[in-house]
Structures are given as structure tokens and as C-alpha cells.
Design a protein that fits this description.
By secondary structure, this protein is an alpha+beta fold. The chain has two domains: 4-46 and 274-404, no CATH class; 93-228, no CATH class. It is 51% helix and 18% strand. The protein has helices spanning 4-12, 14-45, 70-82, 128-131, 166-173, 205-208, 241-252, 266-309, 311-319, 324-361, 368-394, 400-404; strands spanning 56-63, 87-93, 103-106, 117-124, 136-139, 148-151, 161-165, 182-183, 192-198, 216-224, 231-236, 258-265. Strands 3, 4, 5, 6, 7, 8, 9 and 10 form an eight-stranded mixed beta sheet that branches. The longest helix has 44 residues, at 266-309. It starts with a helix and ends with a helix.
Length: 405
């Protein structure tokens, strides 16, 4: 098929052509960005958390009375909670699964140009493994004798041994055994030794977005200060967490001079991890669908207008032997040219929007297959939008030429 007449026709109607190209490009940019964010969020929702998060309660108390002995309160809190019926175990921790945003870099050497490995370090005691139901992969578990406890200002000593997750071990050492290896939690710090590896669990949003959801380190130390007081992670019997939440909160209020800053089931913490991005993706998808409908209607209107304007020319072509399929092919090809140009520009718009969203969320949303699929869907929608006006054009009677004259 000779497409030269199509380009001449587009040139004659360049205002409408440019308008449709811009609309397609803008719709492609917003739609594909929305789909990229939504699919990435849905993918993460399906990932295994690695812990029984429906049976774990997170309590974050905070003292407003500076005269309180936080260390003594910590001991009492754990004793009181363990005495409660249906409580399996409790552990203090500086970080909470799904919200652990204190991401750091760890190194295999202390050299200036040493490679960085992203992770989150959980400071806790030996009970954290039972609370999170983490299993031993290699080496040994941390014990009570490994744990460093004390107030931050008066306890300069730090634990020299750590355990790392299976994913962290793979990132650091590949196929080599991690147990017995030395790592640096900061270039200026003393090295620590890996004594064991444990099963993976999900840390938080910042590592999720980098494809490193399960990279974590557990360091056996519990330190506190007025500014930084530990969270409590409490595992209860299966199915009892919701009913026990208020009773557990009441136990923590037995200690005077403080309030509960945060209290919830970890299943709610996990859901909230995705809520912001999920709401953003849903809003963008709704806007995109509206834009897609408007674009389709615009294509329908443009083609219907051209059919009306070119009725005599179409009739002449029919009189000269053009088949209905030739007329249909003309308008579908014209539509495809406009759509493809718009989609190519839309890819650039997508890259711009996605890059900005990735920068804000500190994660990579780009997925080439999703981008191509979105472009294909837009092309099919525009083909359908033009189909009926094109079919009407193909049904124009050749006799219209003689009637017009």
C-alpha cells in the first residue's frame, strides 16, 4: 500500500494530527508510569514476608519523664509480657520489620574504595529469632552471653559478632560460606565476625525497591537512651494477636511516666508499607483510564471528521475499483502512523515520569515488558476507536460522485 497519500493527508490536517500525537504521548506517559508503579507494588504484595506477621505485635513506648530508669523498665516490661497467657516470646529491637528504614552500607574491607552493600541492622537480643521464627541456615544462633546491654552514653562496647540473613550472605560472599567471615558495618568502625546465617525476612520499603528486600543483619546488643528507646516485638499464639493488643498495651502502661507511641499488629505494618504507593498507583490508573477513553474518542472523532470531508474522494476511489478493504486499510494505517509517533514520544515522557518517581521512592520502577505491553494496548484501543468510522467510509456508495456533480 502506498503511504505517500496518507502523509499528504496528515500534512493537510496537521493541527489535528499534532493534537492527537500530543494527546497519545501524554496518555502513554501517564498510563505506562501508573501501570509500572502498580505492577511493582502488586509484585511486592505477593512476596513472602518470612515471618508470622499476623501473630506479632509491635509496641513502641516512650518515656516523657527523664528521671525514669529505662533499663530497669525494659527488664520489667519483658517480665510482665512473658507472664501473660498466650504470649510466646518478646524481644526488644531498634528496628521493626516492614518499617526498617535505617539503611546502611556494609563492606568486606575498610579500604576507601570498598564496594558498598545495602542492608538494615537489627539490634536485639537472643529472643528475636524465636519471635520472628527465623531458622538457622548455617553456623550457630546468638546466645544471651553474646548480647551487649546498657545505656548508650555509658556503654561504649559494641557486639563483635553478628548473624546475617541468607540473602545478605549471598550478596556478600556468593557461593562461599559466610560463617567465620569478617565484615565492616562502617569504614571507620571495628570489624565484626559472622557467626551464623538465618532465614530471610522482609525489612522495609527502601530495600524492597532496590530488590534487596531480605538483606539484613542482627547484632546482639540492646542499648537505650532518652532519645532512642527500643521497640518491643511480641509473638503470641496463632490467631490471638487482635484480641490481645489492648491487654498488652495496658501492661506497658503499668510503668509510669510514659506513653505508647505506636502499637499495632505487624500485618498492619506490612499493609501500610504499600499503602502510599498503592494509593498513588490507583489514582494514576484512574486518571490514565480516563485519558485513554478521551484519546480513543478523539481518534474516533478525527476519523469521522475525515470521512465526512473525504466522502467524495472515497466515492471516487470506490468508483475506480478500490475495495472496501482498501478503504479500511487506508484509515487504519493512517491511525497507526499517528499512534506510533505518539507512542514513541510517549516512551520519552514515560522515562521522565518514571525516573522522577524512582528518585522520590528510592527504587527502580522501570520494566521494559510492561512498557511494551502498555504501548500495545494503546495501539489496539486506537485501532478499535477508528474501526467503526473506517467501516462507514468503506460503505460509501460510489454513486455519491455522480450525485455530487
Amino acid at each position: 500500500m502506498d503511504i505517500k497519500p496518507i502523509f499528504l493527508s496528515l500534512k493537510q490536517n496537521k493541527f489535528m494530527t499534532i493534537l492527537m500525537i500530543v494527546q497519545i504521548a501524554f496518555t502513554m506517559g501517564v498510563l505506562s508510569s501508573s501501570v509500572l508503579v502498580a505492577t511493582d507494588t502488586l509484585r511486592e504484595w505477593g512476596m513472602d514476608s518470612g515471618i508470622p506477621h499476623e501473630d506479632i505485635i509491635r509496641i513502641s513506648p516512650e518515656f516523657f519523664d527523664e528521671n525514669q530508669d529505662i533499663g530497669q523498665a525494659l527488664v520489667k516490661d519483658i517480665e510482665r509480657v512473658k507472664q501473660m497467657a498466650n504470649v510466646i516470646n518478646v524481644a526488644p529491637s531498634n528496628a521493626v520489620p516492614f518499617t526498617a528504614e535505617n539503611m546502611i552500607n556494609v563492606y568486606l574491607t575498610a579500604e576507601e574504595d570498598a564496594q558498598e552493600y545495602k542492608t538494615v541492622v537489627f539490634h536485639s537480643d537472643e529472643n528475636i529469632f524465636d519471635v520472628l521464627q527465623l531458622s538457622l541456615i548455617d553456623g550457630r544462633m546468638l546466645t544471651a552471653s553474646d548480647v551487649i546491654r546498657g545505656e548508650e552514653g555509658t556503654t561504649p562496647e559494641n557486639a563483635s559478632q553478628v548473624m546475617i540473613s541468607q540473602a545478605m550472605a549471598t550478596a556478600l560472599f556468593g557461593e562461599q560460606a559466610a560463617v567465620g567471615q569478617t565484615i565492616w558495618l562502617a569504614k571507620s568502625s571495628d570489624p565484626v565476625q559472622v557467626v551464623g546465617t538465618y532465614s530471610n525476612f522482609m525489612t522495609g520499603e527502601r530495600l524492597n525497591g532496590r530488590g534487596k528486600s531480605y538483606q539484613s543483619i542482627i547484632r546482639p546488643q540492646v542499648k537505650w537512651s532518652q532519645a532512642r528507646q527500643p521497640n518491643y516485638l511480641i509473638r503470641v499464639e496463632q490467631g490471638k494477636a487482635t484480641a490481645m493488643l489492648e491487654d498488652i498495651i495496658d501492661v506497658f502502661y503499668l510503668e509510669r511516666g510514659r506513653y505508647i507511641n505506636s502499637s499495632e499488629l505487624l500485618k498492619r505494618t506490612q499493609k501500610r508499607m504499600y499503602d502510599g504507593r498503592g494509593s498513588r498507583a490507583l489514582t494514576m490508573l484512574v486518571i490514565s483510564v480516563i485519558l485513554l477513553i478521551i484519546t480513543g474518542l478523539g481518534m474516533t472523532g478525527l476519523t469521522a471528521f475525515q470521512v465526512t470531508q473525504k466522502s467524495k474522494q472515497i466515492g471516487t476511489r470506490r468508483a475506480l475499483g478500490a475495495k472496501k478493504s482498501d478503504i479500511m486499510r487506508y484509515f487504519l494505517t493512517e491511525n497507526s502512523i499517528i499512534t506510533i509517533i505518539g507512542l514513541l514520544i510517549g516512551v520519552l515522557v514515560t522515562l521522565t515520569i518514571t525516573f522522577e518517581l524512582s528518585e522520590q521512592a528510592s527504587q527502580n520502577f522501570m520494566n521494559l515488558s510492561v512498557l511494551l505491553l502498555t504501548g500495545l494496548v494503546m495501539w489496539l484501543v486506537n485501532i478499535l476507536a477508528v474501526w467503526f468510522p473506517a467501516k462507514r467510509a468503506a460503505n460509501i456508495d460510489p454513486a455519491i460522485v455522480t450525485r455530487s456533480s
